[in-house]
Specification:
This protein has 307 residues and is of the alpha/beta class. The chain has helices at 2-11, 36-47, 59-73, 88-101, 126-148, 169-175, 184-208, 234-247, 251-254, 256-263, 290-304, and strands at residues 27-31, 51-56, 78-82, 107-110, 152-157, 214-220, 274-276, 279-281. It contains eleven helices and eight strands. It has an eight-stranded mixed beta sheet, sandwiched between helices. InterPro entries: NAD(P)-bd_dom_sf (IPR036291), SDR_fam (IPR002347).
Amino acid sequence: MYLAYIYRHIVVKGKRCTSKAKLHGKTVIVTGSNTGIGKTTAIDLARRGARVILACRCKQRGEAAMEEIRRESGSSQVVFMQLDLGSLKSIRSFAESFLKSEPRLDILINNAGICLQGQTEDGFGLMFGVNHLGHFLLTNLLLDRLKECAPSRIINVSSMAHNFGKIDFDCLNSHKALGLGTSFIRLLQIYCDSKLCNALFNHELAKRLRGTQVTCYTLHPGQFISELGRNTGLFLQIVLKPITTFFFKNTVQGCQTTLHCALQEGIEPLSGRYFSNCTVRDLFAKARDDAAAKKLWEISERLCGLV
């Protein structure tokens, strides 16, 4: 069953976003947009006329990406704002600056992701902190602005890797991490766990957004490992290079499902659903578990200091 799933989601490089939507007067935030599919997503949105906020950790790389995206898109409405998703202080500072300087937010694309061991400055497991908790806090801090500018959308980039994930709530409560250990296998497992967090977050978020005109979607971009770009350890990049070169999508192909979820007309009734290859897909039960999604939300609120 899993082999068929992998073939359908990765080997078939397939569909493109067909939306012709123009975004003049709209503002979009894309996290992790100085590289990979985040940057390619930003270029497309800027070409459509959006004001694009590049939310990236590294000032030097972010500003270089801003200049490149302006050249590629022909748009001057591309702005870099520093955001370190591994720092609750940085996330709060970003949100405060954004809300003061930008009157609109129409689309929030939670794209950034890493596959690295370590801890955040707040003591969280690095992949839990960056891949899930940082985006959880960012989304909650910006939610009122999204509601004010509705109809609006939130895109949570996950991965088919979520199918191999699990949430160890005991470990989260005791160690503020999804798992312990430093082996190669543990690295991949914790990454998969963090992608399951993305799916569960999206599931619970959709329930909490009912009755608003804000919708949310999660997706597999079609790159499983290669979407992580430079934010993967060197050893993992070397090991997987022959596989990713043969099987996985390039960044233009890889960003199509993100663009579909951000732009496609008429998918509002599918809020909370999971997409791959520009097509809505069914999730396995563990990624739409109401109790687990609610529990993760409540733990995340507590760890972020929202309650």
